[in-house]
């Protein structure tokens, strides 16, 4: 449910979730569970939870979608990604926020062939340094990296602070 990755025990009754508690043997939370973790049962049973993949059927931004089966969704995604990978894998860029699977998504990006992957909020200072950008270049509003080959993304030029 969040980036803390707390261990949980889920109690089931008649095939449904009855209760969620912290796992006392887990090294991160040692059995303590916050309200967000305890509320996982509500997220699981929420009527707003997506049950199937959605395919946009109207113009972008219209909010018009239809439910499709997983087979069709995976086939569609594989088709889109296949065309990108054939032409130039570096055309794919994605940003994951603070998710539960940063190691997997980073590995996937590497295997796909794109270096254009950033986790936990895009281009934070750690990712910027790894990409060869300096903090002063980002703060000064410079639109080029130290080597002059890669532009600094606009969101980095606007952001102030450490």
Question: Explain this structure to me?
Answer:
This protein is of the alpha+beta class and 162 residues long. Among the domains are: 8-45, no CATH class; 51-88, no CATH class. The protein is 35% helix and 14% strand. The protein is built from seven helices and six strands. The protein has helices spanning 35-38, 40-45, 70-88, 102-112, 125-130, 135-140, 154-158; strands spanning 8-13, 16-22, 54-56, 65-67, 94-95, 117-118. The protein has a two-stranded antiparallel sheet. Strands 3-4 form a two-stranded antiparallel sheet. The longest helix has 19 residues, at 70-88. The radius of gyration is 21 Å and the shape is extended. The relative contact order is 0.08. Residues 121-129, 133-152 and 154-162 have low confidence and may be disordered.
Q: Number of DSSP helices?
A: 7
Portion of residues in beta strands equals: 5-15%
Mean pLDDT across every amino acid position: 77
Question: Count the strands?
Answer: 6
Strands ordered across the widest β-sheet: 1-2
Percent range of helical residues = 25-40%
Low-confidence region ranges: 121-129, 133-152, 154-162
Distance between the termini: 27 Å
Shape: extended
Strand count, sense and closure of the main sheet?
2 strands, antiparallel
Structural class: alpha+beta
> What's the SSE pattern?
EEHHEEHEHEHHH
Any idea what the radius of gyration is?
A: 21 Å
Q: Which oligomerization state do the chains in this entry correspond to?
A: single chain
């Amino acid at each position: 449910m969040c980036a803390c990755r707390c261990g949980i025990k889920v109690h089931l009754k008649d095939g449904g979730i009855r209760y969620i508690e912290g796992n006392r043997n887990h090294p991160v939370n040692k059995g303590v569970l916050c309200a967000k973790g305890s509320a996982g049962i509500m997220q699981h049973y929420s009527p707003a939870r997506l049950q199937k993949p959605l395919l946009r059927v109207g113009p972008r931004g219209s909010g018009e979608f239809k439910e499709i089966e997983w087979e069709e969704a995976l086939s569609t995604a594989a088709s889109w990604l296949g065309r990108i990978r054939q032409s130039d894998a570096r055309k794919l860029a994605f940003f994951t926020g603070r998710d539960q699977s940063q190691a997997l998504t980073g590995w996937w990006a590497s295997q796909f062939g794109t270096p254009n992957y950033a986790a936990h909020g895009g281009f934070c200072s750690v990712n910027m340094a790894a990409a060869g950008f300096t903090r002063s270049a980002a703060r000064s509003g410079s639109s080029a990296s130290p080597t002059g080959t890669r532009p600094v993304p606009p969101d980095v030029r606007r952001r102030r602070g450490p």
